[in-house]
Amino acid sequence: MDRRTTIKWVLTASAAWPLGGNAQTHSAHADSARVESAPAAMPAAQGYGTDPTLTRNYAPGELWPLTLTAAQRRLAGILADIIIPADDRSPSASAVGVVEFIDEWVSAPYPANSRDRGIVLGGFAWLDAEAARRFGKKFSDLDTAGQHGICDDICDESRATVPRRTAARFFSRYRDLTAGGFYSTPAGRKDLNYIGNVPRAGNDGPPAALLKALGLE
Q1: I need a labelling partner for 18 at 20 to 30 A (CA). Which of 35, 98, 115, 207 fits?
Q2: Cα→Cα distances 92→10, 178, 190, Å
Q3: DSSP of the chain
Q4: Res. 12 pLDDT band, cuts 50 70 90
């Protein structure tokens, strides 16, 4: 799963799917742990209050309590780096703060964020359960081959077996969050060759040929 593939998936992805589904999708299977949206505790903070001061740098957890434990943050970083690893063009997702972005996102006290909190925590629990079933270890403690093997089974819902399709929906949502966090950073924008928001020394105006073609010379 290279970065070019990730971009293609992100640009063609439909709206995120909640971890709901029909009874067949959620049926138990002898060879695969059942995936459900983890219970998402209501955040202590209340949403839709006053706007934050945009010129101030807030410390993590200052706006609302953060959700992920240390073990979950470790897993979050590993999974983010499987989706967007470092290469000769840019650093990995975790290196530019994607874990912090995801933790803030799933901790925010708003309906969409609360839904994603359940999806992400449920997906993390499934990864650990699947790793324990296959290898007797937590996902974060597996070697690269083991981690990639599990992810390969859920990285494409159209190819995922029926008992794993809910896990594939989690992976799709987590991929979207990872890409959203990564490609909103300077390193991510550079990787996309995005040249907006760059100050220019001057402005020469529209080309003369274009003005002439429009009758505006």
Answers
A1: 98
A2: 17, 11, 13
A3: --HHHHHHHHHH--SPPPS---TTTT--BTTB----PPP-PPPSS-SS-SPP-TTSPPPTTSSS-----HHHHHHHHHHHHHHS---SSS--TGGGTHHHHHHHHHHSSSHHHHHHHHHHHHHHHHHHHHHHHHHSS-GGGS-HHHHHHHHHHHS-TTTS-GGGHHHHHHHHHHHHHHHHHHTTSHHHHHHTT---S---S----S-HHHHHHTT--
A4: very low
Q: Is the pLDDT of residue 17 over 70?
A: no
Q: Specify if 48 maps to a domain.
A: no
Is it the case that residue 91 has pLDDT exceeding 90?
yes
Residue 117 domain-assigned (yes or no) = yes
Q: Determine the distance from the C-alpha atom of residue 110 to the mean position of all C-alpha atoms in its chain, rounded to a whole number.
A: 17
Sign of CA dihedral 124, 130, 132, 134: negative
Better pLDDT: 180 or 44: 180
Whether residue 123 contacts residue 16, with contact meaning beta carbons closer than 8 Å, is answered with no
Give the number of domains in the chain.
Answer: 1
Please give the average per-residue pLDDT across 73-95, as a whole number.
97
Domain span at residue 119 reads 3-40+56-213
Answer whether residue 198 is part of any domain: yes
